[in-house]
Sequence to fold (313 residues):
Amino acid sequence: MKLYESPLYKLTIGNTGTASLLRIGLGIVFIIGGFNKLSQLLDPERTNAIVGSYTGGKGYINEFFMNFLFSGNSFMTPWGFLTALSTFELISGVALVIGLMVRPLALIYAFLLWTFVFSLPVVTTPGVESNINTYTSPAMFVQIRDIALSGFMFVLLILGSGRYSADSVIMTNGVNTEHANWENLGLLLRLSLAAPLIIGGLFGGYAQIATFATYQPILFLLGALLIAGIRSREAAAAVVLVMLWFMFTKLNMDKSVIANLNGFKREFAFIAAALVIVLRGSGSAYTPTDVMRRIHFAFASNTTTDNKLASDA
Fold:
């Protein structure tokens, strides 16, 4: 069967198909994450451990947010906050997969994912050694995968709910943007996908920076190809293989199914984004050819203007 005859190609062709694949990949991330956390938060034997992991030296709630959220007369507790957030994560993940309220959720998550960067406790001051187990690499590098997911969310926000969505059943208009410019959206998608590859390729030797169990120069090469838009389909296909390899290396037969899935949940979204590029391309915006064309156009325009001014004089 030829590629253009495959069900996956037919699903992803056009903006609506692209939105469907992205929203499903992103929804899976939050279903796994929300279910995994709730299963621990609602288990009395594991509650203290997971709350401690989020409020400790390597948690997502640093001292600033601890004081802001839970100090003084606040009615909120760390357990209540995490339970509410995890419930929202699970429900919103299901909503994304079925295509319900996709644009509002994409907008929320596009910014919410950045809070993990802001709230991550890190110690990167030169000459300062931490006496607790915490992060010692820049927060943006540690959380680069969530930054990539934010980029995917912005693409989804513009495209809409896609095919086979609950939104298209409930609403008549405004569900999808049929004529969105894929040149620009493809650029955002490929840059977002490239970001964790570049960071892993350059800084993978430092603490808590993901390398996807892959040789760092390979990651950097794939990221560079995606950024430049050179052989982006082939690079994206290789990214799919890298993510599948990473998932395989993370499997642990001593862990539960949900614990295993939680270890590589973000990679489902990366695979979805990479498949979109494989099947549709990443656009030609700011590829080397496009950059040269823009430079030529800029100078040609200036030359034309100068000649016109000279003739008018």
Remarks:
- Residues 57 and 221 are 34 Å apart (CA to CA).
